[in-house]
Amino acid sequence: MSDKVYTIAFYDEITDCDAFDAYAELAAPAVINAGARYLARDFPVMTREAGKNARVTLLEWDSLEDAEALYSDPAYVAAFEKLEGSVRRDIRIVTSVKPGAFMGKADVSSN
């Protein structure tokens, strides 16, 4: 079994709530049909350090391929078109930590 993959979306700015709501209505079923599981989807209950009080979505996937395929799925593309540039968001896709992995040294390399 491959490592789990997580998509974390931080919505830094939503300028058109109607467009966002139209997106969310179509995106949620498309995301679920693509194989993701919603783990969180709301504003933070608490922030720390440089945290922003911005909407966050956390998805779990069984593979990176599934997470990547979402962006070409016709149902998700139709949902994404509803956003019409009405949000500014930061989306990151990360893999899970392997059980027993040494956590003493941080990997601070960047792409």
UniProtKB/TrEMBL annotation:
InterPro entries: Dimeric_a/b-barrel, DUF1330. It holds the Pfam family DUF1330. Residues 4-96 form the DUF1330 domain. It comes from the Bacteria. This is DUF1330 domain-containing protein. It comes from Hoeflea prorocentri.
